[in-house]
Design a protein that fits this description.
62% helix
Length: 149
């Protein structure tokens, strides 16, 4: 149940009535929002993230889809008596495609160029530089500060 408020509390809370013109006129002048200055972002730029996503789709997505489709194709072949496939070979082939997809995931991330213009088709030349970036991201902040000074 709700308790009744004393008269003092309700009298202290005055409602501000604004007309429609003053409520919506010049909101940027009357805004009390605190804005923080933009810091330089240390994240991945959008154009690099998009490039990574495209590479990951082809190098990891396609093998993963093939890994799942192995089960469907194997089931169809066995149920229609086309061939006798042992379950262990179905699992082995599927695991091979999933491992290929895992390797493709890493390749898609590490081979993306961080330049504005896209790099080469395979991007193999970007892998060592991106590995250095990844290692630097995992260093403690104090080490990064000492090296930059």
């Amino acid at each position: 149940m709700k308790k009744k408020q004393s008269k003092k509390k309700t009298q202290n809370k005055k409602k501000k009535n604004y007309s429609e013109k003053t409520a919506f006129a010049n909101p940027e002048k009357t805004s009390n929002l605190v804005t923080t200055p933009n810091r330089s972002s240390t994240g991945i730029p959008k154009y690099v993230a998009d490039r990574m996503a495209r590479r990951i789709f082809f190098t990891a997505g396609i093998p993963t889809i093939l890994g799942m489709s192995v089960f469907v194709v194997s089931y169809i072949i066995v149920t229609r008596n086309i061939a006798e496939i042992p379950p262990s070979s179905t699992i082995a082939i599927s695991a091979l495609f999933f491992l290929l997809g895992l390797a493709g995931l890493s390749f898609g991330i590490l081979s993306a160029s961080w330049d504005k213009e896209p790099g080469s088709f395979f991007g193999i030349e970007n892998i060592p530089m991106n590995i250095k970036r990844a290692k630097a991201a995992f260093k403690p902040a104090t080490q990064n500060f000492d090296e930059n000074s």
